[in-house]
Each structure stands twice: as C-alpha cells, then as structure tokens.
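User: Could you check the structure of this?
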Amino acid sequence: MVGRRHAIVGLLAWSLGAVPFVQDACAWSARGHRLTALIACEMLTPSSKARLKSILGTSDLATAALYLDLRKTQLEQAIKGSRDWHFDNRPVCDASAAKAEYCHGDNCASARIRQYFDVLGDPDRTKAERLLAVRVVSHLVGDIHQPLHASNHDDIGGNKVRLAGSWKAGPKASLHTVWDDDFVDMAFGGSDDRNKTELQIAKRLAAQITNAQKRAWVKGGVDRWLQESYDLAAHSAYGGLAGFACSDGEQEPLRIELSGEYVGNAVAVVPQQLQKAGVRLAGILNRRLSGAKPGPGDVWVWKL
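Assistant: Sure, the predicted structure tokens are below.
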C-alpha cells in the first residue's frame, strides 16, 4: 500500500509539469535556493551529474530547487499537508519540545527530507518519483538553513512580526520575508558581486569551502543541521531583536524597526548558511545518485 501511494504521488508530481530552463543539469538560475543548488553542482561527482541529468531532462537543479514554492498550491492539492514540509517550527522558547508537537503527520522538513532521501536512491522507483524526490530534497535542504524555517515563536516563523522601514515586500514585509529575501540580496550586493551572475557567485562561494569544512558540515544528519539553524534563530533571528523575550501565549502582531547591527549580523550569516546547504545537498545527491566510491574531496552524506 505504501509503495502504491508513493507511486501515485510521483505520478501526480510528474503531471504537474517540469519547469524547463536550460540544457545542462547544473546551469545558472536566480538567488537563495538557486545559489544553494549551484553551489551543490560544483561538488557533484561525474556519475551523480549524469544521473541527475537523466532525471531532470531539459531542466536543471537550480530550477528544480524552486519547484515546491512555484507549485505550492498544486502540490497541496495532490499531496495534502505538503504546505507544511518547508519548516520544522520548533518553539524558539522551548528547545525540549517534542517533535510530535511541531511535526504533525510527518509534515515537516526533516521528515520529508529523510523520506525523499530514500526515494532518490531506490532503483525500483519510477523516474517521476525520483524527479519529485530531487525537487523536494533540493528545496527543503535549502529551507532548513534559513533560521526562521527551523523555529517559531507563535508567529508562523516570524511572519507575524511586521517591519517598519524600506523592504522589498513594502508594508507587508515581515521578519520572515526579509530573512528569506532581502538579506540574501544584501549579502551579494557589494562591489565584488554586483555585476556577477549567480553562477559566478556560486563558484566563488564553493571555492571558499575547504575540504575540512565539507567533511565537518555533512556530519550529523538533518537533525544536527536543523539544530544549527535553530541556534541561529534563538541567538540572532529572534534573540537579536530589541526587546525580545520569551512569554506564554500567542504573540500579537508587531511592527518593529530592525537596527543596523541586527541587519549587519543577519547579512553576515547568509553566505555560510548557503554554503552549508550547498555542501549538504551535494552530499545527499552524491550518496544517492553516484555509483562510484568517494574519492579525495568528494562530498558524501552517510546518514540522515
């Protein structure tokens, strides 16, 4: 029954349609999730790249990483609960909260990364199922490195915390949206990157990562990766807010102004979070798609 359900899920996802882009599976794309995917592409083994290409066809990994956002409504219609896959909303003021409290029915990022990690490397799965697995894993690995996708303060991961000031979302800007979007743009808006393509930025970020960092970052699996993001939320994304304090009950919507220090600290966090996400995504894809044994400098994930 479970196998049949997964087959139906895969076929439904296939019917939603690919988002075509360019011919190479690791070609250029457009920010945040796309940078994560482009960094990962720099670390894939040749056999992983070839198998990824056979799954993605005329699309690419950077485009696949956007699928869960671009097709959120259609995917929810096909797979109920999929809207909740994007986060593990662990209470930022209750680090010991049981997972069952914030991951109902396995509809959270950590559970779905593990599920589709298994699908990726299963030779008995259809191409459609493996395509959905690439889309899910490439997107959710990126999501869990955004601190407000790993935490919550009764405010939908900062979505209820409205911001004063000039932001891309205008008067609708929230703490969550600026971490998703504005801080990424600001991190790569300096003179070194202003006129560079995203592929050039990704290559620079990938080149900065040492082999020792690669080996360290892929260890521990998804729970450790989420813990890192949760700690960032506790100490920076929430903890860095002026007047932040833990309290009982749902928080009222706020409109606050972020300090220059807060913004500077947040922007400084972004590049390494994307680098970590790229390394870890490459590790998953190398582990599940490559038929070769790891060599020096290869990135592999041995457990999730």
